[in-house]
Amino acid sequence: MRLQEWTMAEQEELIHFLMTNTWPYHGHTNPARHLIEKTIEEGGYQSDEVKTFWVENEQNEKVGIVKLYDLHDEIPMFDLRIAEIYRGHGYGPIALKQIADYVFGLSERKIRLEGHTRGDNLAMRKTFERAGFVKEAHLRKAWFSPKENAYYDAVTYGITREDYKGGTTTPVVWEDGQREKKSTSIPDFPDAFETERLIIRAPKVEDALDVWTAVKNSQNALKEWLPFAKALPCLEETEENLRQSVADFITRKDLRLLLFSKETGEFIGSSGLHRINWAVPKFEIGYWIDQSKEGKGYMTEAVQAITNFAFTQLGANRVEIRCDEENVKSRSVAERVGFELEGILRQDSLSVDEKSLRNTCIYAKIK
Ligand SMILES: CC(C)(COP(=O)(O)OP(=O)(O)OC[C@H]1O[C@@H](n2cnc3c(N)ncnc32)[C@H](O)[C@@H]1OP(=O)(O)O)[C@@H](O)C(=O)NCCC(=O)NCCS
């Protein structure tokens, strides 16, 4: 198959071709002779900017025509028509590929080739796709048919020079107008650190027995303030809870930290940086201690170190401690570490036994 340039000498042949076929998706389904003659006369098929080619098959039969226009533009346009008896034989896509060869061969400045068709012109749409064009626009009710006095959808296909050269079909990125999801960068940090008397580290599933035993022994003291201690969990529940904490630590969703005595290795208590917002970054410190280890300043030591860890290692701008207004021991930890009481949220929560409304103290330190 090839494209064979049409010349004015073949005027009658062109008129015959256009008049003996119907063009259901063109403005004139059956164009009249005088109209075609007028268009030819006005340079509508051949001029500085317009060139017309016959589409010839291997048997040298003229199976169609293609008109290229706006040839001075970086983005020329075309009109491809295959004669009725030759439609559906695969000529369209081959002809369109040859049109692309011709246009991109004209000059480096031809950056793309595009075409528009009526949404229901399925043959032409398949032709575009088979020739490597990408659908770039779908305009609803943008194609008026005067004959039917009806509006159809219009579709636009295009091929870029890069795709043509590389034999690729690059799809349009439709989400480009949406705000890109900002990914927050999280710094690298150790999962263990020490204080004078404590090892503070990320939890392990193997800590379950230590933690469970401490909860069991301290349940009376903890259940007043911590819902998880209201009913004693079983060992498996504690293990499950630790497994979740390990996972959350890895994904940086929540950083639970367990405290152990440096000297004896004994479990002292549980703390951590919760309700994290890495974008700020800000954290909330929570804590509870094994009742038997109370009164020795361990938790103050731990909270001091964890706060410091948040500011220096995690880039915190804000660290909070929230506790029940009546939880005197917890408040004194916050105050000893130098947290400032920013406010008290009135009737902010229910007591663990759900019988009374409680106020919540918000303590914070900022960078
Ligand atoms: C559009 C046109 C250029 C396609 O050329 P073609 O040589 O017929 O293309 P193909 O033979 O490769 O056929 C393309 C596909 O369209 C299908 N097709 C052809 N006519 C169809 C029709 N009327 N309705 C639905 N599908 C049709 C073919 O079956 C083929 O699909 P398939 O391979 O999955 O079966 C040609 O049909 C034509 O000249 N039509 C009239 C002029 C026109 O509409 N030009 C475009 C103006 S924007």
Can you characterise this structure?
It is a single chain. The protein folds into 2 domains: 2-173, Aminopeptidase (3-Layer(aba) Sandwich), CATH 3.40.630; 192-366, Gcn5-related N-acetyltransferase (GNAT) (Aminopeptidase), CATH 3.40.630.30. It contains 9 helices and 15 strands. The protein has helices at residues 11-19, 33-41, 91-106, 122-130, 161-166, 208-222, 235-251, 298-312, 328-336; strands spanning 2-5, 51-56, 62-69, 77-82, 112-118, 134-145, 150-160, 192-194, 198-201, 255-261, 267-277, 282-289, 318-324, 340-350, 357-366. It is rod-shaped. The strands form 3 sheets. It has an 8-stranded mixed β-sheet with strand order 8-9-10-11-12-13-15-14, sandwiched between helices. The longest helix has 17 residues, at 235-251. Strand 8 (192-194) and strand 9 (198-201) form a beta hairpin. Helix 1 packs across helix 2 (33-41), helix 3 (91-106) packs across helix 4 (122-130) and helix 6 (208-222) crosses helix 7. It is of the alpha+beta class and 367 residues long. The structure holds coenzyme A. Coenzyme A binds next to strand 4, helix 3 and helix 4.
